[in-house]
Amino acid sequence: MSVIINEVRKGFYLDSVALMRMSADIAAADGVDDAVLMIGTPSNKQIMADAGLLNEQGERASANDLVIALRAGSEGDANRAIAKAKKSLDGGTLKSTGSNALPPTLASACTQLPAANLALISTPGSYATREAKAALRQGLNVMIFSDNVSLADEAALKQQAASNGLLVMGPDCGTAIIGGRALAFANAVPQGGTAVIAASGTGLQEFSVLLTRLGGGIRHAIGVGGRDLNDDIGAISTLTAIDILAADSQVEQIVLISKPPGAATANRVFEKLANCGKPVIACVFGYDESSLPGGIQYAGTLKAAAETAANATIPANQTQSANALAATLASTRTKIRGLYTGGTLCTEAQIVLQQAGLPVQSNAPAPGATTNAAHQLIDLGADEYTMGKPHPMIEPAVRTESLQQAIESADVAVILIDLVLGYGAHQNPADVVADALAAAPAERPIVIASVCGTNSDPQSLQQQTASLQNAGVIVCACNADAAQLAGEIAQLQAG
Amino acid sequence: MSATDLLNNGPTVIGVGLKGFIDDLKSQGADAIAVDWRPPATSDPQVLDSADRLTSGDLSGSVERGNQKALENMLAADPVLIDVRPAGELIESLGDHKILHAGPPVEWPDMCGPMQGAICGAIVLEGWAKDLQAAERLAASGKIEFEPNHHHAAVGPMTGMTTQSMPLMVVENKAFGNRAYCAINEGLGKVMRFGGNDDSVLDRLRWLESTLGPLMADALLASEGVGLKNIIARGLSMGDEMHQRNVACTSLILRELAPAIARVTDGDTASEVLTFIAGNDQFFLNVAMVMGKAIMDPVRDIKNSSVVTAMARNGTKFGIRVSGCGDQWFVADVEMPRGLYFPGFSEKDANPDMGDSTIVETIGLGGFAMAASPAVAGFVGAGSAADAVAYTNRMIEITVGRNPEWTIPAMDFAGVPTGIDVRQVVNTGITPTINTGIAHREPGIGQVGAGVVNAPLACFEQACVALAEQQS
Amino acid sequence: MASASARHCGAVALRVLEAGCGETIAVFQSTAYLANSAGELLCVGPASMPPGPINLCVERETLLLPAPGDSWSFDRRRLSTGNQRLATIDNEAIWHPPATLQPQADQLRAGLAIALPLLRQLETLPSLATVQTTLHAGLAALGEWQSHDPLPQRAIAILGCGEGLTPAGDDILCGYLVALHCLGDPAAQQLATAVKPLLSTHTSRISAAHLSAACEGAAVQLIHDLIDAIARNDRDDTSATITALNKYGHSSGYYAALGATQAIAHFTNSGSQTRNRSHSP
Fold first, then answer.
1. Topology adopted by domain B79-292
2. Residue of chain B whose alpha carbon sits nearest to that of A76
3. Which CATH number characterizes residue A482's domain?
4. Is C29's CB within 8 Å of A15's CB?
5. Residue A63 is nearest to which of C131, C134, C204, comparing CB atoms?
6. Which of A376, A402, B48, B358 has the most C-beta neighbours closer than 10 Å?
7. Could you give the 3-state DSSP secondary structure of residue B90?
């Protein structure tokens, strides 16, 4: 749908050269089909009308008025181009003089940074919808980090975006990597040919980190928000993401990471993926592999997805066997207690334990989890734990209390934890864990951890791993390995 | 900027919320900028919903069109000072026992001290009571009719007294043919606009009526009027913002009037009159006000427009009118100015904000043109010259456009922010900044300081709701 | 500061100034347009501005220009704006357009054969194709126009057609009118009569001022030089004036040259010479 804007300046005089230059600038602006700066003579108005550039505003112009007329593909492009024109016409860059204060509104930020193509929204959730709407109106793609956006708002935003060829990532989108730039919580990973569409934040992070360790790299990683694949939303953002990734010649393969899609949505997503022209790996936790269309490879865990994508195996990095570890435990210690900061890492661990035949319960249950099982994995990032508190990835000290309780529990054999590094995360989460363990008695549960990070992250993977090991924590190569080891110990203890 | 562009060009990001994310992006070499985001000042869902509908929802297109028309009318205005006449001749219904005052409607019991003082003075001036005590009894008796200046194409500073015998300046907006009126500035010190009502105040008013008014009328007739747009343009480049600083414009208009005054009267009278004008740096304030009224009246009643056509205070309430809502007032409690006080006075002496002079901000001058007037920024306690620029920059956020004919040299000749948009005020929580004089709370003492005051957000919230309701 | 003298002052410009006072209506990078109380315009610019009917070229390389809205006054041949004296105009500076030519048809044809290819090399395309179409259709309509008929709509459409503040169509018409006038074609007067009443509604004030002078047969000196060079079949002068015209304005010079050459072409190809002959002594 094209949009025509006419701006009329009464009795406005400017050098022809300046006008022509401005006219060329505007015509070259993104999404502008045609643009012209003319005085509003009868002849010119006829010409503008013939060229599909005149609206009722320009129609009213007189021969001494200057008309800026343009036609653009979308309202956002048109508004941006006209803002640019007005700015050159009005002369004077108000913002360049005086204070260097931040722009108070999204609209004024757009005039300061006209090349902007993405709004990253992290306001409290109740305000996020308004800001996202404003961003879409400006023609920006949107990443909504905020949570607590209603399903109805999410659907409306995504529909509006789709009709303008724009992408909405989120709500509750913690992570994205576009063209090598990490957005919000993301790790410093090298660029490569793998593209990711993820309904989850830490799932995307763990996958990108493991792929990096196997020598791979990320072209783009698009977060779509945890509910995009629900039937209420109908995978609007996922479908857009598949289209744009399929069209990118540098994308060699596409990996989808999500919980099982809604029944009505699954077919559309998987059909589109199967026909996108690139190899596809679907890491869909607890999904029935046999219902995937041919041509899509299935991965049950993030580790499996990374290994399939890289066509390599993640080497184990710790040497102590389950037997040796179990030997250090009192026989009354039988249970696994997982204390997770990353929600998808918690899900993956549940899947791994269930595959090992261990029943699990969780506040964020993965498919197959029961309500009253011996082994309990807690997602500390879930709403009931974060109400009024920072997310545990930002402030891992919120885990300390649960950690101490688990240490003091006589029946806990293994405490399973994660450490998530990268942009946005706490600068030294290992020390927070180490501090909690320093005060623990000598006879305590075994603590098994995995660190989701790279050596290029602001908190180095190497350093964080070393800190944990010094504090007596068993550090596994990845979250799935950590869960696997915990499971083996639990089986021995039950034994 | 389609989704494909995002992937092809990489992200160029505007951050709304946590600034740390933007710092991280910059550290990776990405182009990114953070918005200084604050939660909306409004939490009332009806207000937010109305503002959303007017800004980006179903009503936005018609509001945009209305606002463009409003801006067009403002920029097309051609105000010319043409005459001075007794108010009774100009305003048909202004006869005995009727007083026009500043701000939105207010009745005697609700008026602040200076307003009541000025009313009593005006009653004595008109001869409706023999002294101030009798005047007070008459005012309280309900036999005096009070109405806002704004209801009669008029404005008045501070208490804004207008009665039948007072000489009013007449500005005609040649582009639209409408006229507006305002009394002549009385000077500083003990004056009726600050509630003064003793003999010296009334004597000066009688002199305006008998001498200055008729003489100005003759001089204007002889010089075929004085075009005001150009005087403002020059005044801005000479450091005036036309609310708290009018020294340049007063000199400029004196230059226009002096030769004609010399032609139409004897030397002694000319000297007396010119001395009076030259001795009052704020003489031009009333001219700027009546010009503002003449510019804004053709902006009233533009269908769906969310542009503010009047802002005025009566000493207790602040009222605004919005183009698309016609003559309806949206009223809230007036705020106290923040500023600097003359020696010997402090905040406890101050009267709440008062007067129709906010018409000056309504057309993009005063607090909106603070950057043109670093001297005023200091005087009203707004701080440094850079702060002055920041004030003007903030007003850009809440206005429809800029006035290319009234430019600010210090900002690379950018035009003053023009056409206050109630939607943007509600969306940003940025309320209009007004440069104002501060009156003593007791009548008759006069000005005790100067400062800045903000228009109350509630007026703009009500206007948004009303505008949205009216369109639905 | 002593005021500079005027290098050239067009006869129309002087007439505008003689009203005594007025205001500045538009200011460009190096020139400003002043209006008198009757609304007539002149253009003040530096010495490098070519002489023309409404131009006042001041003997300085750069001028301290007045601001829009500034008043000007003209008293004892001195032009002042604001508080500065801009220029003094001596009698010898007054510029008049050259006298009309005594054209020879074969010379004109030969001159055109030199000018047209040179112009074609310079052709600048407007950003909208419809502008080009309108201009060419208008030129064709002017060529076919019989001066006793009303001016066809397609020809009127040239007026005010094109981008910027002095639209290309007006430049074409300027060149066209002046060339007809210089050739002594009576159609010049008839075309002027048809165009004049349209000026206030069909184009900008500034463009109308230039066109109004063209209706009297005068344009910037360069146009007269070109017509003269073509009439003399002088290859070097034709080439030199076309080069100079191409540098004049953004594209004004080019379009004026286009208008002038088209007028000459129509004059030589049609019965204009017959009309002319009947008019000659």
1. Enterococcus faecalis V583 fold (3.90.1710)
2. B1
3. 3.40.50.261
4. yes
5. C204
6. B358
7. helix
Interval B356-405: pLDDT, tens: 999 999 999 999 999 999 888 876 666 677 778 888 988 998 999 999 88
pTM of the model: 0.65
Residue A186: inside a domain, yes or no? yes
- Residue C90 is part of a domain; what is its CATH number? 2.40.50
CA-wise closest residue to A485 among A304, A284, A306, A338: A338
Question: Which of the residue ranges B276-280, C66-70, C198-202 would you say has the lowest mean pLDDT?
Answer: C66-70
Residues A332, A428 within the same domain: yes
Note whether residue C263 is domain-resident: yes
Residue A153 phi, psi dihedral angles, 5° rounding: -65, -40
Does any domain span residue C100? no
Share of chain A above pLDDT 90, in %: 60
Which residue range is the domain that position C55 belongs to? 4-95
Find the CB nearest C161 among A13, A37, A43.
A43
Residue range of the domain that includes A265 = 112-310
Q: CB contact, 8 Å: B233 with chain C?
A: yes
* Percentage helix, strand, coil for chain B under 3-state DSSP, each rounded to 5: 45, 20, 30
Model confidence pLDDT, tens digit, residues A71-103: 998 888 888 888 777 766 665 433 333 345 678
Both tokens assigned to A398: 């919120």
B405 in contact with C, Cβ within 8 Å: yes
Taking the Cβ of residue C82 and every Cβ of chain B, the question of whether any pair is shorter than 8 Å is answered with no
pLDDT tens digit sequence for B216-236? 999 999 888 999 998 999 999
**C129 to chain B, minimum CA–CA distance in Å?**
27
Contact assessment for residue A267 and residue A292, using Cβ atoms and an 8 Å cutoff = no
Any chain C CB within 8 A of the CB of A221?
no
Residues 6+ apart with CB under 8 A from C212: C12, C196, C199
Residue A107 belongs to a domain: no
Q: Which residues of A touch C249 (CB under 8 A)?
A: 16
**Cβ separation C164–A20 shorter than 8 A:** yes
Same domain assignment for residues A306 and A326: no
Judged by a CB distance cut-off of 8 A, whether residue B24 touches chain C is no
Kindly state whether residues A127 and A38 are assigned to the same domain. no
pLDDT for position C271:
53
Nearest to B103 by CA among B332, B299, B399, B300: B332
- Name every chain B residue with its beta carbon within 8 A of the beta carbon of A97: 389, 410-412
Residues of chain B with CATH 3.90.1700.10: 48-75+299-471
Asked if C163 and C246 sit in the same domain, the reply is yes
Domain count, chain C: 2
**C203–A contact, CB cutoff 8 A:** yes
Residue A459: inside a domain: yes
Inter-CA distances, B61 with A71, B54, B303, B304, B454, Å: 17, 8, 12, 10, 29
- CA B394 vs CA B345, B428, C224: distances in Å: 30, 10, 55
Same domain, A124 and A55: no
Predicted confidence band of residue A141 (pLDDT cuts 50, 70, 90): very high
Architecture of domain B48-75+299-471: Alpha-Beta Complex (3.90)
Question: Rounded to a whole number, what is the distance in Å from the CA of A97 to chain C's nearest CA?
Answer: 23
Instruction: Report the chain A residue with the minimal C-alpha distance to residue C166.
Output: A16
Half-sphere exposure for A58 (CA within 13 Å, toward CB): 29
What is the spatial distance between Cα A208 and Cα C219, in angstroms, rounded to a whole number?
72
Beta carbons of C68 and B229 less than 8 Å apart: no
Residue C17: half-sphere exposure toward Cβ, Cα within 13 Å: 28
Token duo for residue B295: 């510019």
Average pLDDT value for residue range B102-106: 97
> For residue A344, what are its two tokens?
């998808």
Count of the separate structural domains present in chain A: 3
| Same domain? A299 vs A337 | no
pLDDT in tens, C169-195: 999 999 999 999 999 988 899 999 999
